[in-house]
Design a protein that fits this description.
Region (Disordered): 1-31
Helix content: 55-70%
Number of helices: 17
Structural class: mainly alpha
Keywords: Membrane, Transmembrane, Transmembrane helix
Distance between the termini: 114 Å
Transmembrane segments: 108-127, 147-166, 173-191, 211-231, 238-258, 278-306, 326-346
Number of strands: 0
Mean pLDDT: 77
Amino acid sequence: MSFDKIKSMFNGDHATDTSTQPNRSPTPPLDKKAIFKDVALNDFTPNINLGPNEVAEKQIEAAQYQPFTVNYQSQSPNYDELAKEQQARVNAAEIASINDKETVAFKLSLLLFFRQLVAAFFSHTTLNIFLPQLSLRFGPCYPSSMALPYLISGAIAGALAAFICYFTVTWQLTGGFCLFFYILLSGLTAFRGLAELSGLVTRRRADSMTYGAALFLPSVLFIFILNAIFLRNEPFEGGIFFALATMLSAAFASSLSFDIKQDPVDSFGTMSLKGVLCLALIVCIFTMLIFKLTVACSILGLALLLRLIIGYYFNRHNVLASRQHICVAQLIIMLALMFDLLLLSLNHNILNNDLYTLLSAQHLIALN
């Protein structure tokens, strides 16, 4: 069917030449939609013998044909890739709309939580050196779980140092033994990070002298403060002070991963707001159960102040939140907290009265 004939049909010129054609019945009114379907079918399908199913499919395609709409995307040579990307976006949106609390059972969530707590001991202690295969099996952990392995490491090192001071009655060696056990459990990551951070500050590459100074100076300060703590207090009081200092420093240092860019090579992980709030609540309650209220507020305020100063410095100088930098912040906060506890415990008992009475009943400390 030609275009001129269709045009004449729409103009109402339906008369035919009766001189050359036989008499026919009057022409019925034409359906414009049927004409367009016929045109589309004649234009886009060859005149071949088709089965009934194929004819039906062609008629459906012709009915859906829109002559004034061009799908430029289908004309693209990368149409298949574009379709796959669009389907992938749809699938990602469907997956993101799923509520995890409805799909994961409570028992499974609790099991995964304790699993990552165990994985924290392999991530933040030297257990991964002795059990590498088991460390890979447990995988990564939450950044907020850093405080627990440091608390256990500090408690073990402080208890061993307290036993040495209690049985040998020589406080001169207590700080050295405590530092030895602490490094044996936590490693030298903080000292390596301190050397790297000093290189960033001085804008020089860290050499052997820098690494030596980064190990020597904090160690001397560490031993001096611990010896003074064990000299002025009971041995097990000194162990408790050291364990709490390691826990608080690790908790506040790990919170740096909340608002600092991650290192793509040695990422520490990003802490969520929920993790920050839960960690802050647990640390505050635990600290107030061990120390008196005024002492707990003092050391918590000091740790928060140092955390803000270190975080400001990292953001100002574009320092990434790698494992070494987080461990450096933990070491700095720990030394400051130990010095603060030394000053607070010079003339007064800073432990909670109930805890002090319990330790005195067990003959671990002398009742004043």
